[in-house]
Amino acid sequence: MRVESHPVLGKLEEAPMVTITVDGKELKARKGEMILAALLANGIIVNRYTRKRHEPRGLFCGIGQCTDCMMTVNGIPNVRTCITPVEDGMKIEVQDGLGVWRDEN
Ligand code: FES
């Protein structure tokens, strides 16, 4: 679910929809919204699992100051998804531990 109307900002402009892939599953997202917002709108709340205890982590600060929303994006681990905008065709993966660099080309 997305905010479409805000009491202060009024009706929010609708951006075009793009397609992203999350753990192999195609999802729709609004171009330019933060990855984390797109995932929440699609019901995905776990972004990574901790290295030592394999505990799930998700939205915490929402402003790029912690590490709880880090995911692997287009083969690059540790991307803070709460401050990274969606782009068409992005490949996003729930990250396990420190993540692994992968060449997506
Ligand atoms: S939720 Fe804290 S950096 Fe993204």
How would you describe the overall organization of this protein?
This protein has 105 residues and is mainly beta. The chain has a single domain (13-96), classed as Ubiquitin-like (UB roll), CATH 3.10.20.440. The protein is 7% helix and 32% strand. It has one helix at residues 35-41; strands at 5-6, 10-11, 17-22, 25-30, 48-49, 56-57, 70-73, 76-80, 91-93, 95-96. The chain has a 5-stranded mixed β-sheet with strand order 4-3-9-7-8, covered by helices on one side. A hairpin with a 6-residue loop joins strand 5 and strand 6 (56-57). The longest helix has 7 residues, at 35-41. It is globular and about 45 Å long. The mean pLDDT is 93. It binds FE2/S2 (inorganic) cluster. The site of FE2/S2 (inorganic) cluster has 11 residues, from loops.
In short:
The chain has 105 residues and is mainly β.
Highlighted features:
105 residues, Ubiquitin-like (UB roll), three-stranded mixed β-sheet, 1 helix, globular
Order of strands across the main sheet: 4-3-9-7-8
Average predicted local confidence, pLDDT: 93
- By CATH's scheme, which homologous superfamily applies? 2Fe-2S iron-sulphur cluster binding domain, sarcosine oxidase, alpha subunit, N-terminal domain
Judging from the principal axes of the Cα atoms, what is the shape? globular
Secondary-structure element pattern, one letter each: EEEEHEEEEEE
Could you say which small molecules are bound to this protein? FE2/S2 (inorganic) cluster
Tell me the distance between the termini. 33 Å
* Tally of contiguous helical segments: 1
- The total domain count is 1
Number of strands: 10
Can you give the helix content as a percent range? under 10%
| Cα radius of gyration in angstroms | 14 Å
CATH class category: Alpha Beta
Structural class: mainly beta
**Architecture (CATH level 2) name:** Roll
